[in-house]
Amino acid sequence: MEKRVGAPIEVYFAEVSDPRVERTKLHLLLDILVIAICAVICGADSWVEMEAYGNAKEPWLRRFLRLPHGIPSHDTFARVLARLKPEELQQGFLRWMQAVSEVTHGEVVAIDGKTLRRSFDRATGKGAIHMVSAWASANRVVLGQQKVDEKSNEITAIPSLLRLLELRGCIVTLDAMGCQKAIARTIVEREANYVLTLKANHGFLYDEVQRFFRWARQRQFAEVPHHSYHTLDGEHGRIDERHYWLVSDLGWLTEKKDWAGLRSLGMVERQRTVDGATTIEQRYYLTSLAGDGQQFGEAVRTHWSIENGLHWVLDVAFHEDQSRLRRDHAAENFAVLRHLALSLLRREQTCPNGIKVKRLKAAWDEAYLTRVLFS
């Protein structure tokens, strides 16, 4: 990823509207946002911790914030950040990420969803919030996110997210939920390639693809034009072997014309041995890639980095699954702050440690926090 120089923070959030009436504006909105961002980077996981961080770092914060009435209280953080329009805060996040990073040609962008488990509210009948994120796997940063509407699902949220991103030349990977004609069309319109997991819910298409690969495997792909790739990993009594096949001659495929940009079908056979017990599974894929089995295989494997690189880190280092924020837009907006903090910490490369240590270092070392914010 090319290193890019960002703008002042206020530029990214210039279009975030203040939800307060004039007589209640003791603290500037920008001051509240910047303290909140810094606090989350430095380990804050609640409104009370935001206030404590601000009080501890007030002399440093005054170097670039006005703070006309000192540090906001935790009630102020809670009230303001719960009422901000999430789409405006997300646009600020998006502007920041676009200013300091960009995907490179051929980079895998994994799209996947995560539920904020404790954001449900039984008293009001509010369900848990589900967020769909775009993860640049090579550089391990979040490019954007979109909340899934409570009365909808990822199928409608994913195209909205894709239209927000600059994806030209990259490879977008999605699991079975994202294997939809409209999503494939949107990715092609964004001048990107796709790798979509095909599952049995696609009925006839799935059966046709499965029958073809079963026939080709029986013939060991004799006289079947294809590209292949193979990986073998093993440690601690576990052996993980994967075979990848990519077929681009699709004249026989009944629904080929219905999928924008479809150029190949892929199959992955995974043989996993743990403590002497072996399991075998096959998965099938629709993709706009053609002619490179290794590229296809690496895209499939890379997709799952979003689980360890994003979802797991949000739960372990940011305690996202323990957050009980439920008021108004609090849970969704705090999720945006976590994504922003994680992406900025990932971009800062002088500290070789994990995210938890980086958060602590940012809290202890103001020079390091400055690099995280402005590098």
Question: How does the SSE layout of this entry go?
Answer:
Layout lengths: L8 H4 L16 H13 L5 H10 L1 H4 L12 H10 L2 H15 L7 E9 L12 E8 L4 E7 L6 H11 L6 E4 L6 H9 L3 E6 L5 H15 L8 E9 L2 E10 L16 E11 L2 E11 L5 H11 L1 H12 L13 H18 L7 H10 L1 H9 L1
Parallel strand pairs: 1-4, 4-5
Antiparallel strand pairs: 1-2, 2-3, 5-9, 6-7, 7-8, 8-9
Helix pairs in contact: 2-3, 2-12, 3-5, 5-12, 6-12, 7-8, 13-14
What report would you give on this structure?
The protein is elongated and about 75 Å long. Strands 3-2-1-4-5-9-8-7-6 form a 9-stranded mixed beta sheet, with helices on both faces. The longest helix is centred in the C-terminal third of the chain and has 18 residues, at 330-347. The protein starts with 8 loop residues before the first helix and ends with a helix. It folds into 2 domains: 9-93 and 333-374, no CATH class; 108-308, no CATH class. The chain has 14 helices and 9 strands. By secondary structure, it is α+β, with helices and mostly antiparallel strands. Helix 2 (29-41) packs across helix 3 (47-56). A hairpin with a 4-residue loop joins strand 2 and strand 3.
SSE class: alpha+beta
| Strand content bin | 15-25%
* End-to-end Cα distance: 14 Å
- Secondary-structure element series: HHHHHHEEEHEHEHEEEEHHHHH
Tally of individual domains: 2
Mean pLDDT: 93
Strand order of the biggest β-sheet: 3-2-1-4-5-9-8-7-6
Count of alpha/pi helices: 14
How many β-strand stretches? Answer: 9
Q: Name the helicity range.
A: 40-55%
What global shape is seen?
elongated
Low-confidence stretches: none
Largest sheet: 9 strands, mixed
Cα gyration radius (Å): 23 Å
